[in-house]
Input
Amino acid sequence: MADLEIEFAGMRMKNPIAAAAGAITSTPYTIQRCIEAGAGAVIVKSVGLDELTQLLPRPGNWFCDRIGDRGSLMHCYAGILPLENALEYISTVKPVAEREDTRLIGSFFYIGPWTGLPPFETVSPPSEVTLREMALQMEEAGAEAIEVVCTCGLSCSAGETASFVDEAIPAVFKALDGHLRVPFWLKLGFNHDVFWRGYLETMRGLGAAAMHTYSDFRVTFLDIETARPPLTVPFGYGRWLRGLCNYAIFLSANDTGLQIISSGGIWNWRDAVERIMCGATIAALESPVQYRGYRIFEEILGGLTRFMQRKGYERVPDMVGLAVPHIDNMEELVVQFMTGAVPPQTLHTVLDEDKCNGCGKCASCIYGAVTMDNGKPLIDLELCERCGACITICPVEALAIVAAG
Output
């Protein structure tokens, strides 16, 4: 049996799958559902100062299925929790979390002001004393760790965010380091290599042991019937983040050696495995739970367990960062190019007719090398470029490129 237990920032966790802060952790009911569904940790919805919660008195939540993008998991969510609510929620669900052996993590916004975005121009981050007092109250309520969010999809340009984060990282460490019994870490959004490497360097210099990353790239999508986006600020979450977040994790793991929580773009167990192999210790999700229900935790944990058993991984740490040496590796890229640099006549594209289901996907070949005959593909080796596209889109692995003869 595969062992899913991990250690993160000094905490033991029963598995590496967490519920990220958001709508699914914004009420006692939703928090308890995540716990009972099997999440190894639940990050309670982020707390903001009164001036911020008054600007967003209730959450906004949009999926883009209704504007012609069904199943894309393109998602916007905006919501902030008052401190007193978070303290009450943690105290309420603490017995359930203890019964299910789930870690409860508190979360704070440390954001603003935002130039050119009234009325948010009036919003300032909490002072050193205020942040410390809030964290201590969260700890007293039963939080087993504290997460401080220093970037937000509702903020303005990447450059403005980067300037703020440069100041926020040392300020948060000054407020919390050495003052809490529980661990704390920062949650930062990846939006530019240069900015990101600077954040990592600052945290490494301050002695950080862990962090949470997600993608903070600006995106825009429209309801073409109204020629307007569902939310005017250009941000969104969804499966499309998968590759961006994988790369952010790679940079973080490669440059710092920090333990990392990663969220964004995780839709199934395979995505969670991929994120772990890119360097994350914990894979966190939020949007997919809203889209598919709390059962997704069980599905991901089941898939992760079966994969580990099939591949012979005994423990999750055996997989953490396995892919890091092979990402952005120019030496391996040269080998790949040279391996493929052979005349097409030395290779053949072949079909396993027993596997073929006749779906016809390979017949979309841009070179016209594949045609369908009685529900089976015919391959014209004179036209075939041996590029391998048909092999990668075949759903039943019925095609292969082999040495001629």
User: Anything to note?
Assistant: The chain has a mean pLDDT of 87. The chain has two domains: 6-326, 342-403.
